[in-house]
Amino acid sequence: MMPQSSMIDLLSATRKLPASWWPNELTPGVAAALATAFLPLMLNDYQLQVMWVAFYLAVLAISWNLVAGYGGMFSLAQHALATIGGYSSAAAVLALGLPVWWGVVCGGLAAALLGYLLGHATLHLRSLYFAIATWVFAEVARQLITINYEITRGAMGLQVPYLFSTLDPIAYFYLFLGLLLVAFGASAILLRTKLGYRIQAVRDDEELAIANGVNAARAKRTIFAMSAGMAGMAGAMYGHAVGLLAPSQADFSQMSLIIIAAVLGGYRTLWGPIIGAILIQAVAEMLRFSQEGRLVIFAALLIVVFRLYPQGVMGALKILATLLRRRRQAEGKTQ
Amino acid sequence: MDFELSGKLAIAAAAAAFLTATATSAMAQANATPVNIGVLTPLSPPGDSAAGQLIVRGAELGAKYVNQRLGGVWNSTCPAPGPVNIVKGDDSGLAEKGMAALRSLVTNDKIAGVLGTYDSTVALAVQPLAEQYKLPLLVTQASDDKISGNHTKFTFMTHTIARDRSDVVEAFIKSYGFKRVAILAENTDYGTSSGPDMQKRFVDGGMSSQLWIFDKTNPDLLPTLLQVKKFAPDVIYNMGVGAPAYLIVKQSADVGLLPKTPMIISYDLPIRPEFWRNLGELGKNMIFLSYYQPKQVLTDAGKWLQEEYRKSYNEPALYSSLAAFGNTIVLAQAMNAACSTEGEKVSGALVKGGFTSWNQTGVAFKQSDGVDWQRSVQPIMVLQYTKANQGFGDATILYPPNMKTGELVR
Amino acid sequence: MQLLLQSLTLALLNGAIYALMAMGITFIASIMRIINWSTGEFYMVGSFAHLALLTVIFPALGLTLPMAWLLSALLAMGLVFVLGMVVQRTLIAPMHRPGTQAFEYATIMTVALSVLLQNGAIMIAGPNQYSVPDYMRPILLEDLEIVLNGSRVASGLAALAIILLFYVLLYRTSLGLAFRGIAQNRLAAETAGLNLKTMDMLAFGIGTGLCAVAGALLAPVFLVHPLNGAAATMKGFEIIVIGGIGSLGGAVVAAFGLALVEGLGATFYRAELQQLYGFVFLIGFLVFRPQGLFGHRERRV
Amino acid sequence: MISSILQIRCLSKRFGGTHAVREISADLQRGQIYGLIGPNGSGKTTLINLISGFYAPDTGEIILDGEELTRRKPYELAGLGLVRTFQMPKTFASLTVLENVLLPVAGDGRSESLDAMRDAAFDALATTGLTGMAQHPAGSLSGGQAMLLQLARALMCAPVKLLLLDEPFGGVAPALKERITHTIRQINERFQATVVLVSHEMSTIRALCSNVIVMGNGQVIAQGTLDEVSASPEVVAAYLGKPV
After folding, report:
1. What is the ipTM of this complex?
2. What is the pTM for the complete model shown?
3. For domain A4-251, is the CATH number 1.10.3470?
4. What would the pLDDT profile of B8-41 be if each residue is shown by its tens digit?
5. Are B156 and B24 in a shared domain?
């Protein structure tokens, strides 16, 4: 009775079920990370520096994609949470005398806690108000860091200890590659857990999710705090990689960059933020003849790509793959 | 045999000739190889791209000057490797972008020296990299005294720090008998390093002084200025850069502080042509700090710059451009003195000093104590306009006393 | 006392200006349910268009008119109105696809647009700040020892006039009725035969035009340069939240309230916290009255 | 033995000036299928929203199987066996059909692993005839299929005590109506679940429901078998809009 195509679907469905905690996306992720780990053999200092900055941006974009893309919470505070992570770590290291690694942990925890509180205060708001509320949070953070220059040194920049004793970018390349792999793996696994399904269900239809037994508010708060923690930890590592913190990291232009990276690569996809961040860095380096025009070209690129493929580069790749498959099937039939 | 031998000889000769020719042409090519000098400066937000553009203009004209007037680097004593070329690196005013840009300049462009840093954060972040690469770093306009205070081997500073400005403003204010000073500083590294320093100085010196720090993105400074008015200062020190500087002037008039209270602008903004267009009558009697004045005798290089700048951009060069220009030609001179583009040798030459820049003071980097480590101190003048739409050259020099050309008009 | 009086006078003038700054963003949000993140950039484009018209194009045409500034500001508004409609049709409308959350996608588009316009302006306009000649001579209220900047007064009055015109458009014309219907319920308005595509395009044009005329009018007060739109964005967001989306009256009241809170706070307490007073005010609203002053709670389900 | 499953006492809800539900009391029996009918605007959907916790009642209480519901959070109700569907069929559009069906298992307070419930999910898909769509995004379903998906999810909310169905046949292709009726019966039989069915289609009401509750103007105006209520003058008046 059952048509053949749906039998095939059923079989593949059984295989693709969220049965295992090891998501399908993770295998190519680990493979790519392993391949990337050999890159320093071919790259010079500068390229390594560009790569680690790309990885850092990718981590922020992943964390934002988690709240905004998968969670449907259009937050505009990711850059500020990262900055807060950086300054919290600095406080732990400089004021309390903790080791730098502990500082990084403190930075992540502080950002997660603030994220949780911010989520508590704002997540009941409708999307438009929520976006503005998070933007206000970011702006307040930036201004407070700037105004309290007696403590933070404001725009003069706060010097913090480096994570490693060397300035060699190889060390930071592996550090941020590791962080990126963790962030990618964590979100891939998270999306396959019950919490992951809950948050995606809430994103699609909050009422329906509630009617099916999902505590929507709690799911949103949890994801928001996790994403904030991820950003905060990345921000803390960033501070100790650059050796300097400044309120300009909490400038909205940094948030724009995170959004551009995530959306250009593919909004609501696991690989998108990574592809986007690396693409942005690569394009920036190709455009070295026109430094001033860098952001103009990014924005134009985003507008064109996003207009044609709202799923970004990932969307374009998917369409390409479908076309190729169809052509192959067509060829198969003619033969 | 003979034939073979002569044949072989001929071939050898031909080969030798070919090799020589290749080598010569290669050397000729090597001679033409430009020496790259990096300009690391903010060219996109959140950095102050307006300042960055001025710095780039100065550096590019500096390279032009070196190539046209000095005949490139290594012009006299060493075999000349060729012209100087400016390579831009955008730091967006961010430490991490600055590091990446500097690494790019070193790795891809093989720069022999870098100048232009504008934000203190960027200067502090790239300082250790410059050490690592043994790359001379000329800090053009970052003003935090930690930069020279760190006593690093390859960092050189030509910019004034908080203390220099405080010295001049304090001496000027004292000599004219002002007693109540209102300081309005923007919340950038410039404002937060100099503002508090200056206020402390005035209070320690027995004057009454109050400091207001304001957000650079806030265009409405009226509430702040109402507080200033309540304080009733007899002079206002305006530490805005760019738009805020204009806004302070305009809005001081809105609350009635101007034209009664004298105002000092902390840099040479008033020499720009749009100053009068933007402010009109309000610009009358404006006092401002400047690092040069047209009647001041500039060096040939300085004169050349002002002329070329006016030709290219149809306005006078501001301090940012002058400083970047100066840094570029100083770096070129140091390379010439060292007969090398190697960082170690160039920085050695820089420490020996004795370079011409755009002003008559010259540039020397002594390894003095504290914040004067490898820092070349530049003279600061205090000027005043006395009429609306006055030309920059006609402004009165009020300070230093030995250059004074007129009295303060209140 | 004199200080209080002066502070209040300035806050009133600022209120009118803030109201005009916020009108565009509120209007677009109420009709299209998106935040126009490029509000500040349309403000900036408006100010540059005004600068070009008033100081280059008018003199070149030999035009010497009384109140040329007003004409020029209105022309700038018209130009940006057209630009806004083009942008809406080509970039924003296509983001309303089935299965996508229009809010997010359109907002992302406006973020990209804002980066493009801002940095484009930096590239084209260069590092300088510009101003246009003052619109009016300063007004001296001698008894009160208060000076009022003529341009502020002129632009404040013009702002009020434009807001009044906008009010007439919204509440006294059939087009306005249509807009109000859409703001209430898009689905019902569409069922009632309104062409949402055209109306969205018009709304975006009008909204950006309002931002632009604010930028033009304020050219002598807040200067013309590539980053001058930041304030308009900031005030716009604050006023949207305080006033409630879709309420013109709310936006006007919120604008004056915000100007008062900021002005009084910064005049009588710490001045460097000026912008934070507005934020605190706003956070208060988010916590205690998230629908804003005159907004209404949406029924769920 | 208590055969009553849901007790409603004096339930009221106002929206501004309109009294959408006024002082309704009712007692529903375990394992019965009730039809909830009444003219448009008579308060049927408001009543469903009140029982399922989406509206907080102004007065009154709701007791499900001995548990007071009014103080419970809406998301807790699913765990207590109270399941509802929506009039406009709702789906989690970006999740696959299979993930949609598994979602109740991911809800707070459910301890089974998703893996363990896979077979149950396929059973639910088979019951609703959606097996072939398992890997398709739910956003691509037709209205009728989406309605079936709601029922498939209900099957996963085991054990279902009370199933509230708001217009499950509205705009559904005839071929699928049969499937929906079949699924409703399945749920009813398998869990001994009480079903409240809001519908305008008297033929399906007649086929499915043993009991019919008629609402008019926010109140229950009649209760009994379909034939009994059809004969009631109040019901006729309510439908024709005449005063009693």
Report:
1. 0.84
2. 0.86
3. yes
4. 555 555 555 555 554 444 444 445 578 899 999 9
5. yes
